[in-house]
Design goal:
This protein is mainly alpha-helical. It has one domain. The chain has seven helices and two strands. Strands 1-2 form a two-stranded antiparallel ribbon.
């Protein structure tokens, strides 16, 4: 896939997933918006990281969704594309929208099958599992408070892909 197509696909997926999170009330669309300029910057950074990983690990073909999820989560947390609409109303230190976006975006990417369809039932089962909230809070703690690398995030998403979406090959 060409670099232009790859970048376009990542931008579209991020916008689409953000819109779905706003629609479902997971993200607060009244107070926050997705900054498209920042999205373009973070996708450029993602693409550079992607090329580095492909070169470093001799990956010539399509990279697996867990790696995409980890790389994207890393740049989402670095660039923070969700911005408050009114800076007087919202404190960045308490805002968790980018954490939520990074995690849910990664989960959706991990659920993609080879035919580009989503494993909606498995995704729903995972998100509605009684231990999901505790897992989510621990993952959010890692994103906010711990030093993490893209490799760390890739490992988390690879685990999700292997155990939750195990039908994906």
């Amino acid at each position: 896939m060409s670099s232009k197509k790859t970048k376009k696909k990542r931008i579209e997926s991020l916008i689409h997933i953000t819109d779905a999170l706003f629609k479902n009330g997971i993200l607060d669309g009244d107070n926050y918006s997705l900054n498209k300029i920042v999205v373009a910057e973070l996708v450029e950074h993602y693409y550079q990281d992607l090329n580095y990983y492909k070169s470093c690990y001799n990956i010539e073909d399509r990279i697996n969704p867990a790696k995409i999820a980890g790389l994207m989560a890393s740049v989402i947390m670095r660039y923070k594309p969700l911005r408050p609409k009114n800076s007087e109303l919202v404190s960045y230190s308490r805002f968790d929208g980018n954490d939520k976006l990074a995690i849910y975006h990664g989960i959706v990417l991990c659920s993609i099958k080879n035919d580009d369809a989503l494993e909606n039932e498995e995704m729903s089962d995972f998100i509605n599992n009684p231990i999901f909230d505790k897992w989510f809070d621990m993952f959010r703690f890692i994103l906010r408070k711990q030093n993490h690398t893209p490799e760390t995030l890739i490992l988390v998403f690879e685990t999700i892909r292997s155990f939750v979406f195990h039908n994906n090959k």
